[in-house]
Amino acid sequence: MSNNKGKKLYTQWWFWGGLIFLAFSVYFIVNIEDFTSGEFHAEEDINSYTREIGSGTRSAFTEVTGLVDKNGDDNISPTVTVQNSTNAITQSVSSDPHSISYISLGSLNDGVKALSVDDVEPNREAIRTGDYTLVREFSMVYGKELSEVAQDFWDFMFSAQAQSLVEEVGFVAVDAEAPEYEAKGLSGSIMIVGSTSVEPVVQLFSEAYREYNPDVTIDITSPGSGAGITTAIDGSADIGMTSRATTDEENEQLIDAQPIAIDGIVMIVNNQNPLEDISSLEIRRIFVSDYETNITWDQILK
User: Fold this and answer.
1) Which CATH architecture has domain 136-264?
2) CB–CB of 67/76 below 8 Å?
3) Is the distance from CB of 285 to CB of 141 less than 8 angstroms?
4) Cα separation of 159 and 155, whole Å?
5) Quick check: helix, strand or coil at residue 92?
6) Position with higher pLDDT, 176 vs 110
7) H-only helix segments in 84-157
8) Statement: the pTM of the whole predicted model exceeds 0.85
9) CA 178 to CA 113: how far, in whole Å?
10) By 3-state DSSP, what share of the chain in percent is helix, strand and coil, each rounded to 5?
């Protein structure tokens, strides 16, 4: 009787369907990397990614690459995919074999490949000598008189201790002969708002500063450079962070704006991409509105 039941079981469609589904599931799990990463094919279209309007990284990128129209306005093509953070850009490029984008030198990691630009590698020495030209300043701003503790932190950012941290994390210090900071043992709170690219540097400053002044609380948020400048002007933040240059109109409303570090903007592609170097003209060709759409990688690869 039991043998007959067994025979009937093996003739059921749902049994064989479930067995096949289980086999495919195991195969997918074992080979999930192949399914998700894909392969690079030079004949495929270039998938370009950019930061959002208002991002300091985007503003600096368009300025140093000439991606502006005759009025000086952003001229990145509307067909370029927009991402709202450095992490989103890096993740997109690391998962898309046919992608290209740009990030801060300090945000570069092994998940993506950095390209030379006009045969110059993006590194601190090339930035320091001026050979690498895709550079921008990380700046701090304020628009209302600073409290005693906020002023003390401002002074700390331009000290020898803080400037050494700039070099340690891969940026170029703005003052190699900055004075030593002397702690005053202050207490209080400071609010800092602004750029996602500048925020990691300021977080390091904050941690180092609080070793000297443990009773100070520093709240740092990073909605973008534009928000950093705006909140510094209206006083809702003590200090703003920006990775783009401030405008003449903004400078009229700010008390001070000073760079804390020099950064390189790095062109990045997927690690499967064989490209090693890209020219300034090719960058404009890929990103600007005036050029043709649907550019393929074999048009760029030498």
Assistant:
1) Roll (3.10)
2) yes
3) no
4) 7
5) helix
6) 110
7) 86-95, 124-129, 148-157
8) no
9) 34
10) 40, 25, 35
Residue 31 has pLDDT above 90, yes or no: no
Q: What is the pLDDT of residues 41-82, one digit of tens each?
A: 999 999 999 999 988 889 999 999 999 888 888 999 999 999
5, pLDDT greater than 90: no
Mean pLDDT over residues 101-120, rounded?
Answer: 95
pLDDT of residue 130: 93
pLDDT for 280-290, tens place per residue? Answer: 999 999 998 66
Question: Of the CATH numbers 3.40.190.10, 3.40.440.10, 3.40.50.150, 3.40.50.360, which one belongs to the domain with range 47-133+267-299?
Answer: 3.40.190.10
Buried b (16+ CB within 10 A) or exposed e, 143-174: beebeebbbbbbebbbbebbbebbeeebbbbb
Rg of the chain on CA atoms, in Å: 25
Amino acid occupying residue 35: F
**Angle at which helices 160-168 and 148-157 cross, to 10°:** 50
The boundaries of every CATH 3.10.105.10 domain in the chain are 136-264
List where CATH 3.40.190.10 sits in the chain: 47-133+267-299
Min mean pLDDT across 24-28, 137-141, 170-174 is at 24-28
Asked if 22 and 273 count as a contact pair (C-beta separation under 8 A), the reply is no
What DSSP designation does 298 have? G
Q: What is the pLDDT of residue 176?
A: 87
CA quadruple 205, 206, 207, 208: dihedral, nearest 10 = 50
Distance CA 301, CA 31 (A): 30
Cα–Cα dist 183/157, whole Å: 13
